[in-house]
Each structure stands twice: as structure tokens, then as C-alpha cells.
Amino acid sequence: MPGARLRAGLAACVGGAVAAGLLWAAPVYAAGPAGRHAAPLIDAGSGAGHKFRSSGRLLAGPGGGTACTATVIAASAEPAPAQKALVLTNGHCVRDTLGTNEVVADQPAPEGWSFTPAFFHDNTAEHKTFGVERVEYATMKDTDVAVLRLSVTYGDLAQLDVTPRTLSPTGTPARGTRLEAAHAPIIGVPDDERFLRLSSCQVTGSDVSVHEYTWLWKGFARTDCRGVSGGSSGGPVTTATDNRLVGLINTVATPGYLGCGLGRPCEGSAHGLVVPADDSVYVTPVDAVASCLDRMGLRLHRNGCRLDPGIQVNVQFSGTETQSHTPEGPARWDAHITAGGGGHQSYVAFKTGPFGATDCTNPQGYGRPQRLGKGGADYARLLPTQDNLYVLCAAGGPDATFQGADWTASLTHPSYAYARIDNTPPTVEPSLDIQKFGEGSGADYRVRPVFDLWELTYFEIKYGPAATTDCADLSGYHPYRRVPVTLSASEGPWTYCAVGYDNAGNQTPPKAFRIE
């Protein structure tokens, strides 16, 4: 069944009513007055202003129209002055269509991308904007990070009292850790207040696995940071007692959304997807980026670098949401695997399990490697029957031994497919939006069912005279094509019937609405 594929998240389209990055067509989460008060504007001359002076507004994405937050970084606080400066942000700020396993490395940045450091509300006369010339790295595989190279040097920035931040080499901060996050939201924020703000918050969940849309992330922190909305993506996060970055603001559980989907990330577990509380903000760790930085910049082939170089097997799959039993029979995996860019992938090995409880880097549990022919290999085994999100781990290697350096390297960064089994009916019943036009016998009703993401994403409807229309009779229903029905008041009363479905095809009981 077709779902309502709406984008919702934290990057924002500048000057538009819709948002890009992880925010697209709405409903858009707008930080209300309470959210803004919880994340006050940072004064340039304050302690927070000094701490976050290296952060600011990034305009990137398609056409340079995606607003995010980014930070100047380096391996040390005093890099070579003549070296081009690097900034750190989210991968989805580069392109929100990055695939589950996609890695972008060493590519020119499109024209129009820019970065403005020290982006405070009370120093606008000092704002200077610099071009972005290269995408050093970007991915949404396992994490959500991007490193961009500016057209300006560290020495040039130092003249503006903008010095780079260093990154913590440790992983996700522990539950209860106090945090400070700087970010420049624009959704729900007046034009003249769209500058860096400070969230003081804490970690409410550590080392969690997060699924949103087509992405599988691990090692994230769940936080109670507030005032986060579109434009906050990539905002630097530190502990309250240290200046080094421990993470970046990534996504938020949007109020008003149900279940799991875009704008509503969920956490993986052995027993099923866990729906977070409204306004939970997730933070992606930056220790893998730290492992690849040295005095030369970002180097993916540096000894000890833990960023994925993007040379694993390619996996094509639908990311299906399905009931365990379908009209075609038991639900199956639908993955197709081909050799990637590693050059040593004549074989592939698989293992599966619940997302968040399955470690794809652990060799235990993988099956015997099978040969990858010229056309690749298919994986179409039965899916489990219990409700959950399942991950398929795929690691490529040169032979059937499953041993040696090449296999070890593959297991460090395996590729993924995923599928969700959902046998649970929607938790909400259909509702209608009814608008009346005109008065008396000449009035018309314009009627449409209301999508309730991510529980009601598709409808079947029928309607007719109230005296002769029986919603319990399943004959006569047809798909709702997103075109409201116009009913004449003079011909009423009417009965409008609606059956709601989720993305897996689970349905609600028919619901009858009398319109008169």
C-alpha cells in the first residue's frame, strides 16, 4: 500500500514554507514559545558565545538551499594556518537522499554552498560568509556525518577569532551526562531570531540504535535537548564540562506523529521497535570522525580511521513493511547483492536478526559464504513472523574461507538491508476533514479522510445516501486518490465510509460518518 511519504526532521529549506534535508512537505514541527525559551539566543560576548564561536549557519544541499548548523574542526586547536579549513555537520545536510549504505568521499561541492561562522544575533555586522569547495566525506550509514572543506584557510578564520574545535575520541556519553548544544533553528522561529541558540540538556539514553526512513544508525544518544527544529541539524554537542565535541544534533521525535517513520525515529531492540517520547532529540557521535583526522586533514586511509570507506558490497532492497503472511505467501527478504568497489568480493556471507540486537560486525552467526556471480546474488529467505524491524547483514570477501584480512575489513563495515514485520492493526481510527461551502440547499460539503502518520497512510472509501449505504458491507469500496469528494447538501443526508491502512496493509474496521 502506498504510504504518505512526507519528510520531517531537522534540516530546513531557506525561505520556503516547506523544509528540505530531513524536513520536506509538512506537517512541519515548529518550536513554539516554550521551545524557544528552552533554547535562548547566544550572545556573542558570553561564555557560550566564546565556546561556540566556531559554529554557524551552513547553506548546502540541493541548490545551496538547505539550512543546517556546522562547526569548524581540526585534529588540534592549532592547525597549519595555510591549510583549508574543515567544517563538520550531518550527512543529510549534504543530501537527504543518501541511501542506507551510501558513502560519498572527495567530491566537489556544488556552487552556492556557504558557511557563516560566529552566527550570533548581536554581531550581524561582523558576519562573514565563505564558500564550500569540497565534500570530503558524507554518509548516513551507521552514523549521520559530513566533513566539508571551505575555500578559506584556518589562518584566515583565526583573524576573525574563529578557531577550530577538536573532537572527543570516546563514544556516546553515558546516560545522565549533562550536555550543551548550539544550533540555529529556523522552523517556527521569526526571521530576525534565526541565529545560534543554546540547549542545556542531558543524555536520557546511551548507545541506542535508531531507525528513521531508510537509515540504520547505531551508537546514538537520546537527549532531552529543547528548542530543536529545522535548521538545527549538525549542531555541535559537548558535555557541560568539556569543550570538545562529543556529537551532532541529528533528528527529533516530532510531536503529532505516531509509530515509526520519517520525523518519528524509533529505537531497535530484540523485542520490537521502541517509540520514543515526543521531542526526544538524537545525537550522532563523532569519535569515528576524530579517528580519521590528523595534521593533514581528514584521511580515510589513515591507520586507525574508523569511518566507512564505502567499498563494501552493494545491496538493493525494498525496505518493505509487510505482514508476516501476504496474499503471495509468507513474507520474504528481497535483497539483491552485487560486488562493490573493494575489488575482493567474489563471495558474500549473510546473517539476520532484530535491528538493535544484531551486531553485523561480529562474525558469529554468519552463514557459509556463497559465490557472487556476474549478476550478483539474491537473498530471498523467509522473514520472521514476530513484529519487529529486521536487519540483513551482508559482508563480501575474496573466497569461501570467511577468514583473512579482507574478510576482517568487510566485517568492519558490512552492508545492510532491512525489512519490517508488522501484524498490528492501526492504533487510531479514521477521521474526516469536512468543509462546507455555501448556504442552504445550494451548499456543498468537501470531504476527505485525514492521514495520521505513521499509523494511517492509505484509505479505501465509499459514500452514498444515508438510507442505503452500509459501511459494514465491504463491497463498493475504492482507493482514496487524495482528491476530496464533493457532496451536495440538497441530496443528503450522506454516509461516508472509510477504512484506514498502515504501510504494512493492516486495516481498521470500517467507520461510518453521517454528513448532513
Summed up, what is this model?
With 516 residues, the protein is mostly beta strands. The protein has helices at residues 33-38, 47-51, 154-158, 287-290, 405-412; strands at residues 12-13, 55-60, 66-73, 84-89, 103-108, 114-117, 130-139, 145-153, 178-183, 197-212, 215-223, 236-239, 245-252, 266-267, 281-285, 293-294, 297-298, 314-316, 321-322, 325-326, 329-330, 335-338, 347-354, 370-371, 377-379, 388-397, 415-421, 432-437, 444-449, 458-465, 478-479, 485-488, 494-501, 511-515.
Can you offer a commentary on this structure?
It is built from five helices and 34 strands. With 516 residues, it is mainly beta. It folds into three domains: 19-298, Thrombin, subunit H (Beta Barrel); 314-421, Immunoglobulin-like (Sandwich), CATH 2.60.40; 432-515, Immunoglobulin-like (Sandwich), CATH 2.60.40. Helices cover 5% and strands 36% of the residues. The strands form eight sheets. It has a six-stranded antiparallel beta barrel. Strands 9-10-11-15-13-12 form a six-stranded antiparallel barrel. Strands 19-27-26-23-24 form a five-stranded mixed β-sheet, covered by helices on one side. The longest helix has 8 residues, at 405-412.
What is the topology?
Blueprint: E1 12-13, H1 33-38, H2 47-51, E2 55-60, E3 66-73, E4 84-89, E5 103-108, E6 114-117, E7 130-139, E8 145-153, H3 154-158, E9 178-183, E10 197-212, E11 215-223, E12 236-239, E13 245-252, E14 266-267, E15 281-285, H4 287-290, E16 293-294, E17 297-298, E18 314-316, E19 321-322, E20 325-326, E21 329-330, E22 335-338, E23 347-354, E24 370-371, E25 377-379, E26 388-397, H5 405-412, E27 415-421, E28 432-437, E29 444-449, E30 458-465, E31 478-479, E32 485-488, E33 494-501, E34 511-515
Parallel strand pairs: 19-27
Antiparallel strand pairs: 1-3, 2-3, 2-6, 3-4, 4-8, 5-7, 6-7, 7-8, 9-10, 9-12, 10-11, 10-14, 11-15, 12-13, 13-15, 16-17, 18-22, 20-21, 22-25, 23-24, 23-26, 26-27, 28-29, 29-32, 30-31, 30-33, 33-34
